């Protein structure tokens, strides 16, 4: 049965830049050991003749065709804008830089 040590958990925590308390290291060591055991069990059951899949059911493209349709003209869109300038929406400056 796989076993992960407290030192290995501490090493992983350092790599992930996690500051763990000693009690957390002991607790996580047990949890990671259970996860490793579960993955090992799945690996034992997995058959070589079954191809890997990302979904249980086949996926199909659900997007509609990209077809041009009538839409608002620039003038109609800008007519509803609080402010417009040179055929574009005018918005408040946010970066504080002058042009």
Protein described:
The chain is mainly α and 99 residues long. It has a domain at 6-45: Orthogonal Bundle (Histone, subunit A), CATH 1.10.20. The chain has helices at 6-15, 22-45, 74-79, and strands spanning 84-85, 88-89. It has a two-stranded antiparallel sheet. A hairpin with a 2-residue loop joins strand 1 (84-85) and strand 2. Helix 1 crosses helix 2. The chain is flat, with a radius of gyration of 29 Å. The chain starts with 5 loop residues before the first helix and ends in a 10-residue tail after the last strand. The mean pLDDT is 86. Pfam families: GatC. Residues 66-99 are annotated as: Disordered. Residues 70-82 have a biased composition (Low complexity). InterPro entries: Asp/Glu-ADT_sf_sub_c (IPR036113), GatC (IPR003837).
Low-confidence stretches: none
**What fraction of residues sit in β-strands?**
under 5%
Q: How many helical elements?
A: 3
Could you tell me the number of beta strands? 2
Just give the CATH class of the domain at 6-45: Mainly Alpha
User: Strand order, biggest sheet?
Assistant: 1-2
Q: Nearest-angstrom radius of gyration?
A: 29 Å
CATH topology grouping of the domain at 6-45: Histone, subunit A
């Amino acid at each position: 049965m796989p076993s992960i040590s407290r030192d290995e958990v501490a090493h992983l925590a350092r790599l992930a830049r996690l500051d763990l308390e000693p009690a957390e290291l002991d607790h996580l060591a047990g949890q990671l050991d259970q996860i490793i055991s579960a993955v090992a069990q799945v690996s034992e059951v997995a058959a070589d003749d079954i191809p890997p899949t990302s979904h249980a059911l086949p996926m199909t493209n659900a997007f509609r065709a990209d077809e041009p349709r009538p839409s608002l003209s620039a003038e109609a869109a800008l007519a509803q804008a609080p402010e417009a300038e040179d055929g574009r929406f005018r918005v408040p400056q946010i970066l504080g830089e002058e042009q």
